[in-house]
Specification:
The complex is a heterodimer of chains A (317) and B (336). Chain A has 317 residues and is an alpha/beta fold. Chain A has helices at residues 48-55, 78-85, 105-115, 122-135, 152-164, 182-199, 210-216, 234-239, 244-251, 258-262, 294-298, and strands spanning 6-17, 20-32, 37-41, 63-68, 71-72, 88-91, 170-174, 202-206, 219-224, 227-233, 304-307, 310-312. In chain A, β11 and β12 form a beta hairpin. In chain A, α3 runs parallel beside α5 (152-164). The mean pLDDT of chain A is 88. Chain B has 336 residues and is an alpha/beta fold. In chain B, 31% of the residues lie in helices and 23% in strands. In chain B, the strands form two sheets. Chain B has an eight-stranded mixed sheet with strand order 6-7-8-3-9-10-12-11, with helices on both faces. In chain B, strands 2-1-4-5 form a four-stranded antiparallel sheet, with helices on one face. In chain B, a hairpin with a 2-residue loop joins β1 (3-16) and β2. The chains are: A alpha/beta (317), B alpha/beta (336). At the A-B interface, α6, α7, α9 and α10 of A face α6, α7, α8, α9 and α10 of B.
């Protein structure tokens, strides 16, 4: 078995809020292997974006370890971290908010190069920018334009070009397609897949669109209120979900076929995701779970292997 | 079937600094009693402008009606004065907006917002209004309605706020509900709850629904008939089964093919429609889908196709479906 590129161990991120602590990510562990895509799904507020940002250390973690190249990067100093950052990049959700409207495309894409002093002459800088833009399907005619001149899909391409500028090994894609139209989503996903093949990238793909996650990911983790609920190979997870939450989540996806959709039995979840501020001991899903037993309220289920490479945190499985 | 609403050749444009944007370019459709019509299309295709246009909620100027009629219960809404529209809006026709976070008034208690329409339209007493507000929250399954009516919107979650929006829209028993992307901002599990709720209420209150969405899964779940819009025009319309089983317009086919499905093959690239919709400052002379269409012919560039009938319910706007087209169907670049 290959060595994982990234090993996350018991990662925690708490935020201090008025009423106590908001436990956005509360002890999640997983490995990501080189050149694979690790999908992370869950409802809004479940902590998936916080997890992504904590992993690249955009948020300072509350606890846990992140092993990359044999080193725990959470222990590195600011200066050492800057070197590691070249290997870690992130593509953000909102292509309208993540590009500075007052900078040209050239300056946006070249900003990481400027910070890390990756060029000697101005020619070298603009050559690299054009190379990057071509890589994501834009051209040299776009170099001097501003973000407002582009459509959502094109802006997301600019964001991807910026993330690729430093030849990273690992990219966190934080809902990169959820602000885009279906027909444009496919363009961006195809681009991400193509870049992965050509540049040997490793992705962590965060999304709430479960069908897209199944398509792009090799393995998928399901989060709920800061805990990892289930983790398996994507085919396995979708064909054979073990956790009641995963089952409910999968059955809620509307299928674009009137014949199937109208005759399907759905598992209806009651209510919303509860507040992650000062959560109680026990399974986080207990209040919405129809299989809950007494033990679920008292004891947090351990995240253990239930089948080959199929992990879940539930007492009743 | 009796028609609640009939839109005839509706044209809506916006005056801007750069010129006129023709957002809606001559659309016609009917909504029957207790029927659910879905309007689908990409952002910018004019579906929300159509909805706000029916309600006359567009800011005028810059927006203006360039032509057409909106017949509701036999009367043309475009001839109504603002005062008369106010008696219809929220009373006979209601609207649920996309974003439950911004469409409620943050400074007003939920209960008061729900009955605001009733007090205005039906001169209801404060006591009755209070009772009605609790009843409405019960109807949309908000727990503890007695306590909840005295809370402010920020104390509600997204799903609960959307329920409040629906309660607010339903309170006057409207004949027609326009739901503009009612679940886009919500999670799938909550979306499923809201859609079930809308179906249940539709049956109870016997209303018609215009559902605007870009999610074809929701369309398959909810609607009786589908209207596919592209660049301000209807490119295809038909019964939901017809649209999904035998789409006639290349755009509809491509749209259906690009929806991510749970059973798709991971080794094949996703189907994507290249390019972007045309700029409506200068609407294309011919078919608006010409630039992105893989089946485009010479005629498509300069001549706008008519809506061709396949049967009584199924129409599409494509030269390939023109009654005279069969003869040259297989000829590449064929000219009719």
């Amino acid at each position: 078995m290959t060595e994982p590129l990234i090993s996350a161990r018991n990662i925690k991120k708490y935020f201090d809020v008025g009423g106590g602590q908001l436990k956005a990510v509360d002890g999640i562990s997983f490995d990501i292997y080189p050149k694979e895509t690790f999908g992370l799904v869950g409802e809004s507020g479940c902590g998936k974006s916080t997890a992504g940002r904590t992993i690249v250390r955009l948020y300072e973690p509350t606890g846990g370890e992140l092993i990359f190249n044999g080193k725990n990067i959470y222990k590195l100093s600011r200066k050492e971290m800057q070197v590691v950052r070249r290997d870690f990049q992130i593509v953000f959700q909102d292509p309208y908010a993540s590009l500075n409207p007052r900078m040209t495309v050239e300056d946006i894409v070249a900003e990481p190069l400027d910070i890390h002093q990756m060029y000697k002459t101005r020619e070298e800088r603009s050559e690299r920018v054009i190379e990057l833009l071509r890589l994501v399907g834009l051209g040299d005619e776009h170099v001097l334009r501003f973000p407002h001149e582009f459509s959502g899909g094109q802006r997301q391409r600019i964001g991807i070009a910026r993330a690729l500028a430093l030849n990273p090994k690992f990219i966190v894609c934080d809902e990169p397609i959820s602000a885009l139209d279906v027909s444009i989503q496919a363009q961006v996903v195809n681009l991400l897949k193509d870049l992965q093949d050509r540049l040997g990238l490793t992705y962590m793909f965060i999304a709430h669109d479960l069908s897209m996650v199944r398509y792009i990911s090799d393995r998928v983790g399901v989060m709920y209120l800061g805990h990892m609920m289930e983790l398996a190979k994507s085919e396995e997870l979708y064909a054979n979900p073990l956790h009641p939450y995963t089952k409910a989540l999968l059955s809620a996806i509307p299928i674009p076929d009137p014949g199937i959709q109208r005759n399907r039995r759905r598992i209806m979840l009651e209510g919303d995701v509860p507040s992650p501020i000062n959560p109680k001991e026990g399974c986080r899903f207990v209040d919405r779970c129809s299989y809950a037993i007494d033990r679920c309220r008292k004891e947090t289920p351990a995240f253990v292997e239930k089948g080959t490479n199929h992990f879940a945190a539930c007492h009743i499985i | 079937m009796e028609n609640v609403l009939e839109v005839k050749d509706l044209k809506i444009s916006f005056k801007t600094f750069f010129g006129e944007v023709e957002a809606v370019r001559g659309i016609s459709f009917k909504v029957g009693k207790e029927e659910t019509i879905a309007i689908v299309g990409e952002s910018g295709c004019g579906k929300s402008v159509t909805a706000s246009g029916i309600m006359q909620l567009l800011p005028m100027p810059p927006a203006f009606f360039k032509g057409g009629e909106i017949i509701f219960n036999g009367e043309n809404l475009l001839n109504k004065k603002e005062k008369e529209m106010q008696a219809i809006r929220g009373n006979k026709i209601s609207m649920v907006f996309q974003d439950p976070m911004t469409s409620l008034n943050p400074t007003m208690k939920i209960g008061k917002q729900i009955v605001e329409g009733l007090v205005k339209h039906h001169k209801m007493s404060a006591e009755d209004a209070h009772k009605k507000a609790i009843e409405m929250l019960e109807l949309v399954a908000v727990p503890q309605p007695g306590k909840r009516i005295n809370q402010y919107p920020h104390e509600f979650s997204g799903g609960m706020r959307q329920r409040v929006m629906i309660a607010l829209a339903m309170v006057c028993n409207p004949q027609l509900l326009i739901a503009d992307e009612p679940t886009t901002a919500l999670d799938v599990t909550v979306q499923a709850q809201i859609l079930e709720l809308m179906k249940k209420l539709q049956e109870q209150l016997e209303m018609s629904i215009i559902l605007i969405t870009h999610d074809l899964g929701i369309v398959a779940d909810m609607s009786d008939r589908v209207i596919v819009m592209y660049a301000g025009q209807i490119v295809e319309t038909g019964l939901t089964e017809e649209i999904f089983a035998s789409p006639k317009h290349p755009y509809t086919r491509k749209l259906l093919a690009s929806v991510p499905r749970l059973d798709m093959n991971k080794d094949e690239p996703l189907y994507s429609i290249d390019g972007t919709p045309p700029d409506l400052y200068i609407p294309p002379k011919g078919c608006s889908f010409y630039d992105r269409c893989t089946e485009a012919m010479k005629i498509c560039k300069d001549h706008v196709p008519d809506l061709n009938e396949h049967n009584d319910t199924h129409l599409s706007r494509c030269w390939l479906n023109h009654p005279m087209a069969q003869k040259v169907y297989s000829m590449d670049g064929g000219e009719k």
